[in-house]
Amino acid sequence: QVQVVESGGGTVQPGGSVTLSCSASGTIFLINDMAWSRQAPGKERELVAEITSDGNLKYVDSVKGRFTISAEKGLNMGYLQMNNLKPEDTGVYFCKVRGYGDYYAKFQDDYWGLGTQVTVSS
Predict the structure, then answer these.
(1) Does residue 57 contact residue 75 with C-beta atoms inside 8 Å?
(2) In Å, what is the CA distance from 32 to each residue of 18, 84, 101?
(3) pLDDT given at position 27
(4) Using CA atoms, how far apart are residues 45 and 2, in angstroms rounded to an integer?
(5) Residue 29 and residue 8: Cα distance in Å, rounded?
(6) What is the CA radius of gyration of the chain?
(7) What is the pLDDT of residue 30?
(8) What proportion of the chain, given as a percentage, has pLDDT over 70?
(9) Tens of pLDDT along 26-64?
(10) Which candidate among 14, 66, 68, 74 keeps its CA 20 to 30 Å from the CA of 83?
C-alpha cells in the first residue's frame, strides 16, 4: 500500500543541474528517513544522500558540495538538487523511505520507488 514515486529525471549536459522529487504516500504511519541511491549501467547501486526526521544529512563523498537533499516535514515529499553534474552521475536514481507501517510496529520497513533516469551527456 505504500507508494514511493520519483520524478524529475532527464538528460542534462555536463555542468548542468537537475532536481529530483520523491513522493511517499499510502499506509505508512511515520517516516523517519529518506534516502537517494543511484545505479549506473553495469555498476552496483550506491547510496547518494539521505535525510532523517531529526535533521541529519549525509552525502557520499563524490557528490558533496554538488548535491543537496531536502524534505518537507514528515518526509512525505523530498528533493535531491544536483548541481555541476558530471557524466559519472549518470544512472537511475531511486528514492527510499524508512518508517513504521502502523502504530503498533516495533521495527521500521524500507519502501523503494522504481527510479528515474538521469543522463549526463554532451
Answers:
(1) no
(2) 25, 29, 11
(3) 78
(4) 22
(5) 26
(6) 14
(7) 87
(8) 100
(9) 877 889 999 999 999 899 999 999 999 999 999 999 999
(10) 74
